[in-house]
User: What shape does this take?
Amino acid sequence: MKKLFLLTILLVMGVNCLAQKHFVSVIDERTIPARAQFDSLIVEFGAGFDADKYATAFNIAGRIGKDVHFVSLKYRTVDPKGQEIIASGMVAYPERGCFLGTIEVSPICKEKYMCGTERLFTIECLPSIRGHVVIVPDTIGYGITKDEAIPLLQSENIAQVAVDMRLAVKEYFEAVGEKRKLPRKSILFGYSLGAAGALATACYYHAHKELGVKMRCLCLSSGAYDPAVAIQSSIDKGFNEYLVYPSITLGMNRWMDMGLDYGKIFQGAILRDFDKITEGNENLGNYARNVYGTDPSAYLHPDFYKPGRNDDINRLMDGLQSLKVPAAGAALPKDLRIYLRHSEEDTYVPIACTDLFYKEMREAGYRNISYHRDKHGTHYDEAAKAFVDLFMLIVF
Assistant: This one.
């Protein structure tokens, strides 16, 4: 009888292992009260964030919000070259009560030590205090893959990593015996770098209806949907406060095998400090303002400003153009609600990106789309507004 019982247990365990194609294991987990999450949010937004302006709302939300269970996990996905890789990500969900929906977040560009699984917390998970399951993949180059180059703006892979993370969370719930099911209805949210990633993920779900994901809406803020337009706009303005060009170039060289000569794309101290800039542990906004200045002509190769440019610059710009989202042939449901936000004063990602995206979507027949084109506000101001937008959506 004992042998039969043990055999049954082993058989069930074996079936579960076979069923788990994506989820690998839990890295760490903890529970955080709602009020503590708002305190962490204030710290993360930094000294320039006017916390007093939101104090009443934060206090109310902190009192009525739910305690949230944060879990970082390992899962199987693929890198930009299509090779299987074990990556990491985080899921946050309320300890008690029913799940009100799923929010899938494409993460922003940040220092590698600031990613969710490194700290077992990230502000993107805040809507979980309302009762939502929030899924935030690290993406390649962060978390347990932090030794890899970040595939910045390579949204096709960012989408694949996000989809595989959702499947891993579903398997995780099954593995731990969670009786509440992962809701099929999702809000896709992305700010800054994450905006293009969330948009690409929406295109993926639309193309793969067999996954059964029902997209409630798409919330995008301050995104570089056309990387070539973003960079060219900054060059034309002669002003950029986020020194991300070297990291973008490194990622394209690593994952797209472009064979670029950095000496034909950059000049001066950037070349000397290239490895330090691109390792992912420095605040690229501080670097731009305090170390290399905000005029791209100070560190971009002079050929950027000449007719015809050089072969390496042309290949770089063509490669960036190929990363535009939606990609050729990609589509979204015509009835999908899309919320856009961007500021004219954004000095990290030019508003020209969102202007062009909105124009092209309207011309393609998308009418269920709204655009908050703010006259004032920094890139970080738009982050706060984007989170308020998201909370308004899940509350009302």
Observations:
- The chain is about 40% helix and 20% strand.
- Strands lie at 23-32, 68-78, 84-94, 102-106, 133-137, 185-191, 214-221, 337-343, 369-374.
- Residues 4-18 have pLDDT under 50 and may be disordered.
- The radius of gyration is 21 Å.
